[in-house]
Amino acid sequence: TSLAVNSCFPLFPLGTLFLTLESIEFHRLLSRSHQWICATDGTIQQGQHDLDTGLQGYWVPRVGSNRHVRRPGAGRPRRLTPDQANRLKELLSEGATAHGWANDLWTLRRICQLVKKEFGVKICDSSLRRALKEQLGWTLQKPVQQLRDCDDEEVERWKNEEFSRIKHEASRRHAHLVFIDESGFMLAPTLRRTYAPRGRAPVQKVSDPHAKISVIAAIVVSPKHRTARLVHQLSEDNASFNGWNISTFLRLVCNEVKKPITVVWDSVRIHYAEPVKELLSGRSRIVLEQFPPNAAGLNPVDGIWSYIKYGRLPNYAPFDLRALRKTINAEMRRLKKRPDLLFSFIHRTGLKLTD
């Protein structure tokens, strides 16, 4: 069976052609190919197939020698020029308080007002959101809380000098580095935004908003062998850690690691309570070191809490502490099988295990 194609068919010269379904499919595929048609003699450089003269005459003047050059898509140009985008990035980096707002919060509405004030450009929310992502490289971020007493220069000095000393002394003792920290998990969930019907906020029902389980964890690192492991322990229901719990956990770490250890942790009172001092008096292979005061986020174990609470279990509201305990243990066991994640928590702090 053949089909009659009249002169309105765009690929062929005037006149009527009789084509089979197979030949139509062939020409369709051929028109979508990237074969090189020479503009001088109308032959195909790759494949060396003969074409009808009329077909050559249609392709050559319309395609030309620049047919492989990508043309910019038709559409409305961006509302912000590159110079305006760079300037906007500088203005946003100054913070919202520098531009008259009481709190340091950038919203689309505020940025729209800033763009109109600085550049005289009125931009809608969707265009601004796309410009922030594509031109400025800005996305929604949750701020990290930091104490006002935190000395950034002292933190950098500690990273470059003190931690280097700690590593070298641990290397001479053939010791493992042990980062330790504590945290609490509540029945009240850590809330994150989620999709829901417009105007109907999701409801998280909580059995007891004050019920909690305290968790202590240690990332044990061997800089020499490039290995990392996780040790953890949970408290009793609704209990906080004390000096006796800390000394018990240190014994657990010593049982897990047969070699000497250098413990690096925060300078809180329970870390130097009497039970801990008694343990150290009989175990010379344990050396204690401190992070600088008020250095939030410098302890790699903080990455574990952020990963579980905000990455794995946001909006998680268990019925009781028994279910919460089971979930925490499952998450910690999962992390024990992921040394790559443990190293990523260390890398996130900026601490260098090797010089």
Question: What's the arrangement of secondary structure elements?
Answer:
Layout: E1 2-5, E2 17-20, H1 21-32, H2 53-63, H3 82-93, H4 108-119, H5 125-136, H6 152-172, E3 176-186, E4 212-222, E5 227-237, H7 243-256, E6 261-265, H8 274-281, E7 286-290, H9 301-312, H10 321-336, H11 339-349
Parallel strand pairs: 3-6, 6-7
Antiparallel strand pairs: 1-2, 3-4, 4-5
Could you characterize what this model shows?
The protein folds into three domains: 2-63, no CATH class; 82-136; 152-191 and 205-349, Nucleotidyltransferase, domain 5, CATH 3.30.420. 40% of the residues lie in helices and 14% in strands. It contains eleven helices and seven strands. It has helices spanning 21-32, 53-63, 82-93, 108-119, 125-136, 152-172, 243-256, 274-281, 301-312, 321-336, 339-349, and strands spanning 2-5, 17-20, 176-186, 212-222, 227-237, 261-265, 286-290. Strands 5-4-3-6-7 form a five-stranded mixed β-sheet, with helices on both faces. Strands 1-2 form a two-stranded antiparallel ribbon. The model is unreliable at 1-17 and 34-63 (pLDDT under 50).
Give structural attributes:
five-stranded mixed beta sheet; 40% helix; two-stranded antiparallel sheet; 3 domains; Nucleotidyltransferase, domain 5; extended
